[in-house]
Structures are given as structure tokens and as C-alpha cells.
Amino acid sequence: MRHTLLSATALVAISMPAWAQEAAVAASHADVITIIGLGGDPNSVPGSADLLDADDLAVHDYPDITRLLRTVAGVNIQEEDGYGLRPNIGMRGTGLDRSEKITLMEDGVLISPAPYAAPAAYYFPHAGRMAGVEVIKGAAGVRYGPRTQGGSLNLLSTPVPEVFSGQLGLWAGDEGILRGHGFAGGMTESADGVRIGGLVEAYLDSADGFKTIDGFENASTGYEIEDYVGKLRFEFDAGSIAHMFELKGQYSDELSNETYLGLTGADFAADPFRRYAGSQMDEMDAQHSEISLRYRGELQNGLVFSAVAYSTEFSRDWFKLDSIDPDGAGAAGSVSIASLLEDPAANADAFDAVLGASGFVSADDALRVKHNNRDYAAQGVQFELAGDMTLARADHSWRVGIRAHRDEMDRYQWVERFRMDDGQMVQTSVDVPGSDSNRIESADALAFFVQDEISFGNWLLTPGLRYERVELQREDYGKLDPDRTGANLTRRANTVEAFIPGLGLRYDFDTNLSVFAGVHRGFAPPAPGSTTQEPEDATNWEFGVRYGRETWQVEAVGFFNAYENLIGSCTNSTGGGCTVGDQFDGGEVDVRGLELTGDADLGPLLGLSVSVPVRAAYTWTEAEFQTGFSSDYEPWGVVLAGDLVPYIPEQQFFAAIGIDAGRFGGELAVSWVDEVRTTAGQGAIAADERIEAHTVADLSAWYAVSEQVRARLSVRNLTDEVYAVARQPAGLRPGAPRAVLLGLSVNF
What we know:
Elements: H1 18-28, E1 49-53, H2 54-58, H3 65-68, E2 75-78, E3 88-91, E4 103-106, E5 109-110, E6 130-136, E7 152-157, E8 165-173, E9 177-189, E10 195-207, E11 212-213, E12 223-238, E13 241-256, H4 265-270, E14 274-275, E15 283-299, E16 304-324, E17 335-336, H5 337-342, H6 348-355, E18 367-391, E19 394-421, E20 424-430, E21 437-456, E22 459-476, E23 490-508, E24 513-524, E25 536-548, E26 552-565, E27 567-569, E28 583-585, E29 589-601, H7 602-605, E30 613-625, E31 629-630, E32 638-639, E33 651-660, E34 664-673, E35 676-677, E36 690-691, E37 694-704, E38 709-716, E39 724-726, E40 733-734, E41 739-747
Parallel strand pairs: 4-7, 11-14
Antiparallel strand pairs: 1-6, 2-3, 4-5, 6-7, 8-9, 8-41, 9-10, 10-12, 12-13, 13-15, 15-16, 16-17, 16-18, 18-19, 19-20, 19-21, 21-22, 22-23, 23-24, 24-25, 25-26, 26-29, 27-28, 29-30, 30-33, 31-32, 33-34, 34-37, 35-36, 37-38, 38-41, 39-40
């Protein structure tokens, strides 16, 4: 558990009964490569760390990771589709776009489709099937990698229970939301001491969406998701070694009717949930699969050896409106959707084609809809050896690890063209597949780390060192060679090496009060084939104090990240205007901030017979360019020294209060996010470069029908706040409106 009193809402959740949860937690320590672990104490880490366990995740039963992470100070989030299908997550002032500036893992395994070659996370595991989420922000994060600037996010999948148990949950509500989640599994022991078990899990989720496409009132703007997991586990003792093998397989399929096309300011004010007719064909079709084999060996002398071999594949074709060519004469006269919505008056003909008003007929080939088709693959193996010893009157808990990894992204794209005819898009031509983008980006990486926790008296010192060597390559076949004969093939390669040190320190005055500090290098490799691009580099500091009693705890952390070179990566999701895949130097950037967290159970404090858990989290962040420059990277543009980095809110706040009365309970949670600027600048933010501050409240309630059956009510955006979340990729995008969901779960 988090070891915060928000976790006292355990009985607020539709989750496993206590006996089943204890069994699952007991098994989890061998299940995952992790810093905290289910049932662990994040306060034991010499630095900033948070754990959201199964109870925390089930408070509102959100499958949306962005709503879950609102509870954690220092985490920056930019919503996109309202459902968290493609979250944009940053930590301590890092960039948010596609979560590419943090290390993403599931059970200690990298989960970005191509974490070295193309880290933009167009795939993200569905939080609704997770048993926990670890957030690591301090020096301890050098154990992971390759991206150590802001921190790491490790998702913990459902562990194999120690005894046979399971759960079935069903949800239904507004927007046609239908959601089902079930798992069952356990372990059994044979006469000779061999233990065999497994787990099967299914997560199904669908929604009709909350937007309406012009002229298509009943068209879906939602999604359909299927996600399946299977685990097979084998344990036995041989001599002095306790062995554990676990085979995990996962497959998910997503079909979502989502677009990059937003709204103009005037149209957003009139109807924020409108979609233009030009987005009627937009659709994401994606599949993800993973297979991994994990081993853990525990020796009687205390040594623990763990290993995991993994292979992941991800394919997606995001078919979406890319640009408009009003006269259909060719790409030279086309305008991107981002440029169109920045100035619709100057592009009136193109805007008319997107609006598709009654009776309007465009030229043939006016609307260019691109198959943003990409295939990803990643394979690797990682080993870790850990042990304890006493040396020089100090206790050492050490570990060393190594990872060999390869990944690639195959970009093979083409365009279909349409005429807008009385609100209907009619296909007029189709390009040859591979004629728009046709290249492969790959990476071969070798990483090594060593870390030691040194305890002496009231002190805990944690030095660590990580080494990364990455060989990157870009093979561009060109738009004129869709068959990939190699006639126009160009190759670019680059290699980067980095030593990434980290040092954490904690002093415990007593069992209640401790102070901690840390420093580590923030690092991210450049893009494949970037022969002039330097890695992103930073020196990151943190200082904190933590005080806790039996029923309450407070924590304050200050941080300072000094970037020697901030990198901006061109993607379609940043608005385009540059060659996708190119990177841009942002020079020196200073990020400073403050994180405040408090938890308490007001019940005992007020002499009440019920539990009243409360939590508050506040973050202040200032990310400032130290030098001036001019960039083709659209979110930056012309930058002056002192300008603030875009899309980083200065302040954000979360508060929650719950009640557990034994048979029933609930929670009210409120989050507030300050206004943000969408381009670099300082001082007052221009209206067309601003996302307004907004407040969102969520409510949950539960009733225990029996020991095994619980009924739930969840209300998302209780006050039905209308708010914008971004001006990129193209135009204003809304947050999700109020939705009421009813749920029922059965545990066995």
C-alpha cells in the first residue's frame, strides 16, 4: 500500500476480499522486478516514491491512468481523448507529449513500443487491469532507464494468487460505457513440494463517446478494447535454491474513433463536444502482444538472482485527416490541420472542406487522410543479482543488473484522398502504400547498473551507477520506393554512451521524522540517425522531509533540475510543422519545484467510530529557458531567456475525503490545474496561447450487499465542468463531461 491514509479506502473498493488480497500480495514479491512492490513501503526509498495499490486504483475503478495519477505530487498530465487511451505524462517539468520523457514499464519490463528508437507511447496498458502503480522520481530511478530525467512509472499486473480466488466486475453507464473485468487463478502444491498455478484475466471496455460528428449524430466517437492476460507459474526447491518460473502472455486489441482534429476557439465556446465533418473517417486500429519468461532463484545465503526475457509487438494504423488541398491540385497547395485551425479565416476554402456544410461540394482530392501506419517490435533480456552483507560496521543491500535490448519502428504510410460532398466524404484516389513515409528506425542497447543501500546508525546512503550504450540507425527507403528495393535507400547511424550516476541519502531522527536528499543525472538518448543531435542531459536534485504518526503523515520535497540541453521531438501530436522524427535543441533549462503531500484518517482524530481518510497533494513547478533561440519546433518558436516551457502548469492541487462505515462508504476527490501556456513565453498568456485553469470533481460510493458482492456508483466530473485540455495537435480539445456509472463485483 502507499502507506498513506488514502489507502484506508480499501474497503471502499470493489476489489478482492481481504484474504484474497493478502494471498496476492504474498505472491507479488516474486512476480515483479520492482523498487517498492505490492505491500511495500515507499517511505523506505531514500527519495521520492509513491505506490498506488489495488485499493487505491479501485476507489473509482478508473481505467484511465491520467485520473489515477492526479493523486501523486510532481506528476504532470495532459489529457487528450477523455478516456486515457494515449496518456501524456511527465514528471517534474519534463515534456508530456506521448509520455516519451519518462521510463514506462509493466512488471519491470519496458512497455513503450520502441523505448529506445521511438519512445512516444502510442500504446499504454489499460490501468483497469492493474494491481498497482509505482512512481519513482528521485535518484533511485537510475536503476531503471534509459530515460532518467523525470522518473519512472512501473505498472504492476495482477499477480498469481497463493490460493484459488478470483473476481468478476461489471460496469455500465453514460456514453454507452460497458466494462467487464474478470480474473481467476491460484497455486496448488503436489506431494513432492512442487507448486504449480496460474492466472487468466480478461478486460473488456467500450464506449460510444461524448462527442458528436457534424451530420453523423449517431456515429461512435468512442472505442472498443479487449485485453487478455495469462500467467503460468512453477515453483520448486532444489538443494539450497528456491526456484520460480513464470510465463506471461498478453494480447490487446483497440479500435477507437479518435481524431487529431480539434475546434476553433469560437466553435469550442459554442459546443466543445462537436467534431467537424472532416473527421468522420478518423479511426485508430491497434494490436499489442507480449510474451515474457521470468525466473527467480533464492539461495539460502540470501542471494537472489532474477531474470526475464521478453518480446513485444505493437501495430497500429491511425487513419486520420492530415491536411486539406482545397483545389485538389497537389500537396504543394495543401494546409495542415494544425495550421488551418490556427487561422481558419486565412484558409477559408480549406475550412469549408472540413466543415462540410449542407450543399457544399469540394474539389476531388481535397481532403488528405493518412494511414499513419507503424509496426513496432522489441526484444530483450535482463538479469539482476541482489544480496545483503555487513562491511565496515555498515549493512549493505546491493544489487547489480544488466539489460540487452533491441527495438525498431517500421513506418510505412500512405494517403487516401476524398471529396467532401454534402457532408459526406467520398473517396476519389488512393496512393500506393508506403508512398508517404517509408523508413525503419532501430536501436540496439546494452545497459548495466549497480546500486547499494548502505545502512549505518540512523543513516541510509544509496549510491548507484547506470551505464547505457545505444546504437541507433535510420533506414529511409524514400517515398518513391514503396517496394523497398533499396534504389534510393539512405542510412544514418549514431552511437551514444552515457554513465548515469545517482546518490540518495536519508536520515531518520526517529520512527516518525526523516529527511532525505538525492542527486542524479537525467539522460535520454537522441533519435536514430541524428548525427548532430546531442543527448538530453540534466543534473537533478531533490531535498525532502517526511513526518508521520499512526493516523497521519506529511511530506515536503523541493527539486531542481538543471538541463544542459533540453530536446524537443517533432511528432504529429505536437502539431506538426516539422519533419516527424526530427529533434530540436532547447539549450539550458532550469526546472524548480515544490511537492507537498498530506494524508490522515480524521475518524480517530475526531473520536469517530468510522474511518474518514483524507489526502491532499500540491505541486508548484517553474520550467524556464536560460538562453534565447529560434526554433522550427512549433511549441517553442522564438524563445527568449526567461521564457517558460509550454504545457507545464505552475500549480496543481488534489484533495480527497472519504468515509468507511463498514457496510458502506464513498469518496469525493477534487483536482485543480492552473492555466498553462501552449507556446514558450513569459508574463501574461495570450488568449489564443492559453489553456484555462480548471477544477474537476469525482464521486464514488459503495455498498456491501454481502461479503462477496458489492454495488458501486461512480460519477466522473461531478459538476459537469466544461474545460479544454490542449490546443495540440490541432485546435482545442475538451475534457470529458459528467458520466454516471453503476457497477457490481463478485469475489470468490
